[in-house]
Amino acid sequence: MVMFTRMGDGRRVETTRKQVIDDIYLGMSHAAECSEAKPLSGDEVDHLADILCSEGKVLGVAPGNEVVLTEDGGPYKLMIDSGSSGNGIDMSRTESIMVHERALGMDSFQLAHIDYSIKAVKPIISYEMMVLEKVQAMTIVPLFYGAMPNMGLYYKPDGPFGNPADLMREFKIEEAQHEAEAASDAIAQDIEFITDRIMAAGGEGFNFDTTASAGDADFAGTLKGIEKMRKSHPDSYIVMGMSAENVLGIHGEIEYDGKVVAGLYPHEQVKLAEKAGVNVFGPVVNTNTSKSLAWNLARAITIVKQCETASKIPCHVNMGMGVGGIPMSETPPIDAVSRCSKAMVEIAHVDGI
Q1: Which residues have a Cβ under 8 Å from the Cβ of 103 and sit 6 or more positions away?
Q2: Which residue from 108, 134, 217, 239 has the highest number of Cβ atoms inside 10 Å of its Cβ?
Q3: Distance CA 312, CA 316 (A)
Q4: 302 close to 34: Cβ distance less than 8 angstroms
Q5: CA atoms of 140 and 101, how far apart (whole Å)
Q6: Which residue ranges make up each domain of the chain?
Q7: What is the mean pLDDT of residues 166-174?
Q8: Cα separation of 340 and 342, whole Å?
C-alpha cells in the first residue's frame, strides 16, 4: 500500500509501510551506534510504524497521556513576521503572553527580549524587570524569563574575547582555549547578574535555551552560571534546553565537575545538568534533511528515550523545526509535528514537550 510521508526537509513523498519500517531500523541503528543508546524493542518499532503510517492528518495522544508544555522564544511566536512565516500580529509582549495563557492553554510561558541572548539582555535588564512585574500582575501561568547563553556573542567582533575559530586557523591552539575559558567565565558571571535581578522582579525561574550552541565552553559556562543561580535562589525553577544532540568540542578539554563535556550525548548531558541544579532538561536530536521522517524520528526517539531513562529530573524534549525528528522547515507540516509529538510521548515517555 502506497502512502505519503515526509523527508527531513519537509518534502511530501510516497512510501510504503515496509519502507517506513526499514527506515525506522536504520535510524535506530544509527542512534545506537553514535550515542550508545539502547535500541527500541520490536513492539516499539511496530508502534512507531503505526503512528507514522496512520491515515489521519493530525494525531494526538490518548486521554490521560497528555504532557506538560513549555516553550522558548516567548511572545514573539505571534508577533514576528519573518517574510515567509510567522503571524505578524501587532501586539505587545504582554498581550501575546495573555493570549498564550488564556486562548492557547500553555502550561507555562516566558518573557523574552527580541535579541534572545544573555549578553544582549544585560544592558536592558532594568527595563525587563519592569515588564516582568507588569506581566506577573496580569497573568496566572508560571512565568519564566528566557534567553540563550549564545556565547558566540562574547567573541570578537561582537565581544571582548578572541575568536577560537580564528585562532585555531592560525594554529594558536592554547590561545584559543584560553579565550574560550575566559568567555565561559564571563557568561557564568552574566548569568548570575541577570538571574539575580529577574528573581528580584518576581520571576518564577529561567529558561536557558539553545545551550552549548558555541560548543563545550558554552555548556560549561552555562552550568557554572546555573550553579550560582541555584545557590542564590534555591526555590527558583530552572529549565535548560540544548542546541544539539552532541556537545561540540571546540575547546576539547574544558570540564565541569571534573568531567570533560565535549562529545557528551543527552543521557550524559542531563547528569551534569542535575548536578548544576536544573529542574527540567530539554534534550535535542538534530534532523538530517536528506533522510526520511521515519529515519529521523526513530533516531530521535532512541536517543531521547536513553536520556529519559538516565534522568532523575523531568525531560521536556525539544520539538521544533529541525529537532526531535521534525522536518527542518520554517513552518513544519502539522502531520509530521503531531506524529513526532505523539511518538515521543508514547514511546520515549518524555515528561513534556
Answers
A1: none
A2: 217
A3: 13
A4: no
A5: 8
A6: 68-292+310-328
A7: 96
A8: 6
Q: How far is CA 305 from CA 53, 288, 300, 308, in A?
A: 21, 19, 8, 5
What does the alpha-carbon distance between residue 221 and residue 227 come to, in Å, rounded to a whole number? 10
Neighbours of 334 (CB within 10 A): 11
C-alpha cell read off for 198: 529577574
Residue 332 in contact with residue 326, Cβ under 8 Å?
yes
Cα separation, 242 vs 270, in Å, equals: 10
Q: How far apart are CA 198 and CA 112, in angstroms?
A: 11
The whole-chain average pLDDT of the chain stands at 95
Q: What is the CA radius of gyration of the chain?
A: 20
Which residue type occupies 334? I
Grid cell at residue 23 = 527506515
Handedness of CA 11, 17, 20, 24 (dihedral sign): positive
| pLDDT tens-digit map of 265-322 | 999 999 999 999 999 999 999 999 999 999 999 999 999 999 999 999 999 999 988 9
Compute CA distances 253 → 153, 178, 196, 256, whole Å: 21, 11, 30, 10
Strand pairing report for 109-117 and 280-282: unpaired
Burial 294-308 (b: 16+ CB within 10 A, else e): bbbbbbbbbbbbbbb
Classify strands 12-16 and 143-148 as parallel, antiparallel or unpaired. Answer: unpaired
CATH architecture, domain 68-292+310-328:
Alpha-Beta Barrel (3.20)
Q: Which three cell numbers stand for residue 170?
A: 592560525
Other beta carbons within 10 Å of 190:
21
The confidence score (pLDDT) of residue 175 equals 97
Whole-structure pTM value: 0.93
Cβ neighbours of 160 (radius 10 Å): 11
Section 23-49 average pLDDT: 96
